[in-house]
Amino acid sequence: MSPGRAVPMIDALERVTGRLRFAQDVSVPGMLHAAVVRSTVPHARIRRIDTSAARAVPGVVAVVTAEDLAQIPGLRPVYGPQIEDQPVLASDRVRYVGDMVALVAAESPQAAREAAAQVVVEYDPLPAVFDPVEAMRPEAPLIHELRPEEPHRGHAVYFGLRPLFGTNCCNHFRLVTGEVARGFAEADLVIEETFRVPAAQHVAMEPHAALAYWEDGRLVVISGTQTPFNTRHILAQLFGLSPDRVRVVVPPMGGSFGCKVFPRIEPQVAVLAWLTGRPVKLVLDRYEEFLTLTRHATVVRIRLGLTRDGRITAKRVKAYWSTGAYADCGPDVARKGGFGSVGPYRIPHVAVDSYCVYTNLPPAGAFRGYAVTEVVWASERMMDIAADALGLDPLTLRLRNLLGEGETFATGEQLHDVHFRECLEAVARAIEWTPERVELPDGRVRAKGVAVVMKGMTTPSRSEAEVALDRDGQLTVYASTVELGQGARTVLAQLAAEPFDLPYTAVRVVDPDTDCTPFDNRTTSSRSTYMMGNAVREAASRLAERLRSLAAERLEAAPEDLVFVPGAVCVRGAPERCLEWRTLLATLGLPELREHAVFRNEGGLDETGHGIASSHWHHGAAGAEVEVDLETGTVRVLRLHAAVYAGQVVNPLTAALQNEGSMIMGLGSALFEELVYAEGQPLTTNLSDYLVPSFCDLPDVLTHELLERPGAEVHGVGETALPPVPAAIGNAVARATGARLTELPLTPERVLRALRAARAEVQR
Amino acid sequence: MTHQIRLVVNGQIQTLTVRSDETLLETLRERLGLTSVRETCGIGICGACTVLVSGRPMSSCLLLAALADGFEVTTVEGLLGPDGSLHPVQQAFLEAQAFQCSYCTPGMILSVVALLREHPSPTDDEVKAYLAGNLCRCGSYLPILAAVRSAANRLRS
């Protein structure tokens, strides 16, 4: 069962029988249920909170406001992964509709919800701001007052955070290469355009769920989170404990897509558990999910200079990321989107300013594609606009500028194992690329579009793994990579099994538990199969080596003459000369043999955005063929293809699912996913108003490919196929209609409006 | 206010006292511990909480338990054979790797069981239309279609 084989998930049986238990399914004796009281206004001072009616609801054990948190000795009730700006509970001020104002713990979920509805909060409204560009204006109301003298203690900051003090900008990322002014002077054509991408919802099918209890002064949290160690660290800081006094256990998740990155509800259940002295569980409902975390609404301005023959001379980007009321990991999103906005092109002169901006909206954070969907929409639409202006085929324009092997990216890093051209050519072939549009007799038009993506992986970072063999002959992987449906447990089992010639199903992969699985940065940025995969591979091969040498002594053979059979080591060609693993351990008097391995990637960027942004890059491309009804503005995707560079695929089955899932999520972003607010009040609050792709939205033909190269590094494929999809579809729709499309999603209304504007332009 | 109800859940008679506002979803999860029944939207759109009520797929988040009095309810736990063997639809999902996080899988499988009872040889378009009310955010739709085709073959033979 070597890596590279298409094998079903190791826990497939539990999954089809519904026996797999998620965080929301975990119960412990004496457990209370929590509910949250949330702000109903976007920005206000809290005048008064009346909890008396709530306390009188039968079954209620505690109603907690910010004031009550003072009872917890040593509590510093504010947190955040990059900037500590989020209070456990709003004390004097609320900053968005959904901000947490009070918590209830009760004997039943029903009683908790009933009591939460009985809490009365009076507000004195403050001026609010919802658009990231407006929030940057000097007269905009300030949502936080960051001060230079206060260090940003968020521990996940591994980059130079640069807030613009006295404004709503909590991080300003800059990348400067060459001299853009010179680049534009050398250009024959300079074009400028502004692109917008709305906030979006992850809609993980399983909501956020967390359970906390205190045990002899230690905090135990069972939570569906992509970040067990970040969560442990942040909880420890919050309560003034050393990290080993906090234990985070992570059951499998029912999807996440970024919404379970960094603490979301863990601090709140932990304080409730402390104050009530009982275990407390909180499971959010869908409306609360919509208030908890979103993708950043983004405005990207691009100025692009090109020569007549289609060589890019300069690129100027200004990007504004609406990070909502709390920064979360927005500063890093602005950073990754900042260098991501350059795209995989050879551009001598580049200047990027990327601003992470507070607004009075729900916090925005990680979302599958992590900033790259937004900038690829802008950057790849711009490539088509430029091609049209120059009268060039957009595929040719891209191929003329794509970075190749050994070339240097805008950050100054040299690229290796480069496959942009291969990916783009693969999609062009698959969709039978042509820049021509086809008019059908009944007012429908067909056309094609392509887009290419370059996405980084968290750098620097570290993954540790342990592989152990116990007295029963059981091989176990201890790793903190979480299982969220991507099949991590399966892939790690395959890699651990390989040196032992063992079926992957014989390997046990334990759930992440900070008490017994070693450190890992987090399960994000499509890093786990590569980073943790390498750590597991190393630990397993060391263990196999050790086992072989211990057995060699007893079998009186050279270690290189030994082979593994399931559960035993044998002398090659002498099947009678075997030693069972458990016999070996018993003979040695050892409870287990365990090996530990660490895998790191190194890099980082300096003040001007130069250095190593990513230790290796994800490459991909997408192509689409669409049919647009010019009368209704309806877009039908006929064909969608993606090509993703994978280096080497560990499990073709789960890798294919990652690609297809990314593409279908991209289809939603392209055509209908959009969170809408009116003066900060959410208008899209559940799946009735926020649409995600169903069976009926599938393109007629959806295909994809994973490009491999013998001996190459493994590349994660969790996200790469998502970012190019909206841009490929948008380019196809723009080609079909001749309309100026700059804003996602491509709803019929928006397409019709753009069509009308294009017709008015022609008449003028 | 509470109500005495009698349900046949996965072949077993259950006599229960439920609240007036209690959904069948809550009854199955909280009183009977059937955690394969899962809530996503709570408003009958996503299909994650689908159960079979007298053989018909229904969103258990929308059905008040008191109104289900006297009905037969099947959850994915009730699909297993007496020897614990998988239902052909479960087997087909497993072999086609027709899931990622699998949160939606029990509801999806129950909808497919109902679909194949109504239409033993559905076309892909019929399958898509029937399953439009079962969302899979991981986007495992293509292998699910393959699993439905293979389960249909299995159930016909």
| Helix-strand string of chain B | EEHEEEHHHH
Major sheet: arrangement of strands of chain A: 3-7-1-14-11-12-13
Q: Enumerate the strands of the largest sheet of chain B in spatial order, edge to edge or round the barrel.
A: 2-1-5-3-4
Largest interface: A-B, 51 and 51 residues
Number of strands of chain A: 33
Helix tally of chain B equals 5
Mean pLDDT of chain B: 97
Distance between the termini of chain A: 67 Å
Low-confidence stretches of chain A: none
Explain what the structure shows:
- The complex is a heterodimer of chains A (764) and B (157).
- The longest helix of chain A has 28 residues.
- Chain A is of the alpha+beta class and 764 residues long.
- Chain A is globular and about 90 Å long.
- Chain A is built from 18 helices and 33 strands.
- The N and C termini of chain A lie far apart (67 Å).
- The model of chain A has no long low-confidence stretch (mean pLDDT 96).
- Chain A has a 7-stranded mixed sheet, with helices on both faces. Chain A has a 5-stranded mixed sheet with strand order 9-17-16-15-10.
- In chain A, helix 10 runs parallel beside helix 17, helix 13 packs parallel to helix 14 and helix 16 packs across helix 17.
- Chain B is an alpha+beta fold and 157 residues long.
- In chain B, 34% of the residues lie in helices and 17% in strands.
- In chain B, strands 2-1-5-3-4 form a 5-stranded mixed sheet, with helices on both faces.
- In chain B, helix 2 packs across helix 5.
- The termini of chain B are far apart.
- The model of chain B has no long low-confidence stretch (mean pLDDT 97).
- Chains A and B meet through helix 1 and helix 16 of A and helix 2, helix 3, helix 4 and helix 5 of B.
